[in-house]
């Protein structure tokens, strides 16, 4: 199918480039499926530079799958704090428990079996299978889509399931069966370092003489991705109570959705950005009517727009002093031990809780 573009040298050139340019990353120094699985889950939708410190923290705190399985979920979420997409952390914990308790700590030894693990999709299963067990199964992520679509001038829409199959089959043809791991590492690394999404330096690319997109001046338009993510705007007002002891009130997000099982201050969600009068009236007449309100202060300098993949959160913080003592109130030292969404944790760390 790709014979008119196909170059037998593609894999050899790619792997040679990789051996000369690869980054020194800790998970590349092991074939331990636990550590590789850990790194792959962390690097989903996360840059390597951001994920690496978390990998070190987790592998030090939980050196084996049994250690992770035996941890408390809040401990896992706290260590994950700031990495985002917290369902990954919850699935990580549940899968560790399954592997430890049901599989005696032994990860499934094949791509097909790995797919059955919670939170493990086709890409992650392929990565573990090839890196740990040298199974010849290709990884296909955004980097791979980009490299192959440009090199072979493929205009298929990468948001379509059929395109995923097309690219997977092409990668399978290109992959040397005797060393699939190095090919998978190489093509991902090439996409991350050389064939980057915007303004790649094609003049120094090892494929500058054979890349179809470069020859046709199509580098900036490939890969084709037509589906646009619909973004929802939400308006959060966090209400920071402070009693006469200096303690505050927090709650756990138990509903499904963003930040499940993380902690937050009492939340007033509105349909739009609200002003002091709206918050004051709602707080005194509804949310905290059982307290004597001494004062309400808008921490306007802490207002932030927190962007998630499908939602933009417009967040305001309001400090509310009360005359009573909060039952089960949390002091400032204990407060930092709970797992919070990073936007709230940053607010606490910067002591903007004091407005």
From TrEMBL:
Q: List residues of the HhH-GPD domain.
A: 42-193
Tell me the cofactor note. Binds 1 [4Fe-4S] cluster.
Which cofactor names does the annotation list? Answer: [4Fe-4S] cluster
Keyword terms of this UniProt record: 4Fe-4S, DNA damage, DNA repair, Glycosidase, Hydrolase, Iron, Iron-sulfur, Metal-binding
Q: InterPro entries per the record? A: A/G_AdeGlyc_MutY, DNA_glycosylase, HhH-GPD_domain, HhH_base_excis_C, HhH_motif, MIG/MutY, MutY_C, NUDIX_hydrolase-like_dom_sf
Stated role: Adenine glycosylase active on G-A mispairs. MutY also corrects error-prone DNA synthesis past GO lesions which are due to the oxidatively damaged form of guanine: 7,8-dihydro-8-oxoguanine (8-oxo-dGTP).
Q: Which family does it belong to?
A: Belongs to the Nth/MutY family.
Q: What is this protein called?
A: Adenine DNA glycosylase
Q: Which organism is it from?
A: Flavobacterium pectinovorum
Instruction: List the taxonomic lineage.
Output: Bacteria, Pseudomonadati, Bacteroidota, Flavobacteriia, Flavobacteriales
């Amino acid at each position: 199918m790709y014979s008119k573009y196909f170059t037998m040298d593609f894999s050899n050139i790619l792997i040679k480039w990789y051996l000369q340019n690869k980054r020194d990353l800790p998970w590349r120094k092991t074939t331990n499926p636990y550590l590789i699985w850990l790194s792959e889950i962390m690097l989903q939708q996360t840059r390597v530079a951001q994920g690496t410190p978390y990998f070190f923290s987790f592998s030090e705190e939980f050196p084996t799958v049994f250690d992770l399985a035996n941890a408390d979920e809040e401990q896992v979420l706290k260590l994950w704090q700031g990495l985002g997409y917290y369902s990954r952390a919850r699935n990580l914990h549940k899968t560790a428990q399954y592997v430890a308790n049901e599989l005696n700590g032994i990860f499934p030894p094949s791509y097909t079996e790995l797919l059955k693990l919670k939170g493990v999709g086709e890409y992650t299963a392929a990565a573990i299978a090839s890196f740990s067990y040298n199974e010849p199964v290709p990884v296909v992520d955004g980097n791979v889509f980009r490299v192959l679509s440009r090199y072979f001038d493929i205009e298929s829409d990468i948001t379509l399931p059929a395109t995923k199959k097309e690219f997977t089959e092409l990668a399978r043809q290109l992959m040397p069966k005797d060393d699939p791991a190095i090919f998978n590492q190489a093509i991902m690394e090439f996409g991350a370092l050389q064939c980057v999404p915007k303004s790649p330096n094609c003049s120094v690319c090892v494929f500058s003489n054979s890349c179809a997109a470069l020859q046709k001046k199509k580098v900036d338009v490939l890969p084709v991705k037509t589906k646009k993510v619909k973004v929802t705007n939400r308006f959060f007002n966090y209400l920071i109570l402070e009693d006469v002891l200096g303690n505050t009130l927090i709650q756990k997000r138990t509903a499904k959705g963003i930040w499940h099982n993380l902690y937050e201050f009492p939340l007033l969600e509105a349909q739009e950005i609200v002003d002091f009068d709206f918050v004051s009236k709602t707080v005194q007449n509804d949310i905290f009517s059982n307290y004597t309100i001494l004062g309400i202060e808008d921490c306007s300098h802490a207002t932030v727009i927190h962007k998630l993949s499908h939602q933009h959160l417009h967040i305001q913080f309001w400090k509310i002093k009360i005359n009573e003592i909060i039952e089960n109130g949390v002091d400032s030292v204990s407060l930092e031990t709970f797992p919070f969404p990073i936007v709230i944790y940053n607010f606490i760390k910067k002591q903007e809780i004091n407005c």
